[in-house]
Amino acid sequence: MAFVQGGGGDFSMGDEDGGLEQSNAAEKALHQLEMRYTALKDSLAPHKVWRWAGTGVCFLIYAVRVYYIQGWYIVTYALGIYYLNLMIAFLSPLVDPSEQSELPTSEQDAAEFKPFVRRLPEFKCWHSVTRGLFFAFAATFFSVFNIPVFWPILVLYFFALLIMTLRRQIEHMMKHKYVPFSFGKPQFKGKPDS
Description:
This protein is mainly alpha-helical. The chain contains six helices and two strands, in the order E-E-H-H-H-H-H-H. The protein has a domain at 48-95 and 118-180.
């Protein structure tokens, strides 16, 4: 097989006998859909408050649906566990301080400002939260996901997991002296222009 340039400037794989293979129409449509989705995500990136507000409204719609259909509690529990994992990734640093082998060699190195870099950035966190919500919402339309469970036990188990996980995360923050939030921290400004 050899690469051959088609009439539209596209490169496609050619057979040994010189015939060109046509691109699949479904692949082109999927590629265009992916490009539109990426453009939509890029246009939403600067609007943090509106993104989270829209996701909050969608979550309220999901909660009302689950309340009125009186089922799909296991889907909601799985969504809660997924959100807990996202929250831990959002609150964790990219490089775990306990695994960092470099120690400061001088006082100047120790005083160097190192910004907090998250393992899961805010935009990716929002995207994952919203995507998980839409999958959970879609799952409520299929009876195969309506597994009968005693929902108060799921609620208690979820809160037990939440408390244990947050306690471990807060201990890790205190041990390694990092704060994953920027509010309340001093902000340094450069010299005023003269």
